[in-house]
Specification:
This protein has 105 residues and is mainly alpha-helical. The protein is built from five helices and no strands. α1 packs across α2. The N and C termini lie far apart (54 Å).
Length: 105
């Protein structure tokens, strides 16, 4: 039973991480219970994995668009991939960049 309980904890952490870093319509990991600091700590360990999945999906989209539209349409491909990235993550990275720019100025 210990292995199954650990699996449930890590699945909940994966949902927390994916819900925080993306706009994907995922189920609520709390399900009527309170989330604790340990839940968020486990989720933070999975941020790189979520980033890898998002980057892989965007890379696949870029490769597919490049194959479909051709290399001559690289600006269009870049614009579409950037738009999907901004929409899919809720512009989280751009918000961080803007916060850094505010701090520098």
């Amino acid at each position: 039973m210990r292995g199954l309980a650990a699996l449930v904890l890590w699945w909940r952490a994966a949902l927390i991480a994916a819900r925080f870093l993306t706009r994907a319509p995922l189920p609520d990991p709390a399900q009527g219970r309170e989330l604790y600091a340990a839940d968020h700590g486990r989720a933070a360990l999975l941020y790189p994995l979520v980033g890898l999945l998002v980057g892989g999906l965007l890379g696949g989209l870029a490769g597919g668009l490049n194959a479909w539209l051709g290399a001559t349409a690289a600006p269009l491909t870049a614009t579409l991939v950037l738009g999907v990235w901004i929409w899919g993550t809720g512009a989280l990275h751009l918000d961080g960049l803007a916060d850094c720019a505010d701090a520098w100025v």
